[in-house]
Amino acid sequence: MEQQKLPNVTIAMVLSILSFICCCFSAGIGGILLSGIALFLVNKDTKLYSQNPEDYSNFSTLKTVKIIAIIGLVIGVLTLLWSAYSIFAIGGWEAYMEQNQEMLEQLGIE
Predict the structure, then answer these.
(1) CA 12/CA 52 separation, integer angstroms
(2) What is the pTM of this model?
């Protein structure tokens, strides 16, 4: 019997990698959502693999994607916590946006 690939590995990998990018642009919320979806897909494929392990060939890739998704989730949560702390500790949304603008100017982005 020919071994086949697990169905959700590729999309879970794309979502995991995109979660890193979304952490930067959405205060962590996008990263949490994308890596959460990726983890859901990985768990679905893990259950599928556990039913018939001899039918599938890319379980090592699935484990790698799971690690990437967990790292993306942790970075997303940390970014969200840092954003929430910055908003409340600095003194509101305007002060938070002003601080971000100063950081961008220091980096030479704007």
Answers:
(1) 20
(2) 0.82
The pLDDT, as a whole number, for residue 12 is 96
Number of residues that this document lists for the chain: 110
Whether the CB-CB separation of 87 and 96 falls below 8 Å is answered with yes
Contact 39, 77 (CB under 8 A): no
Residue 37: alpha-carbon gap to chain centroid: 9
- Closest CA relative to residue 41, chosen from 76, 2, 68, 78: 68
Alpha helices by DSSP H, the chain: 9-25, 29-51, 59-90, 93-107
pLDDT digits (tens, 9 = 90+) for 39-54: 999 999 999 999 988 8
- Give the domain ranges of the chain: 9-107
pLDDT score at 38: 97
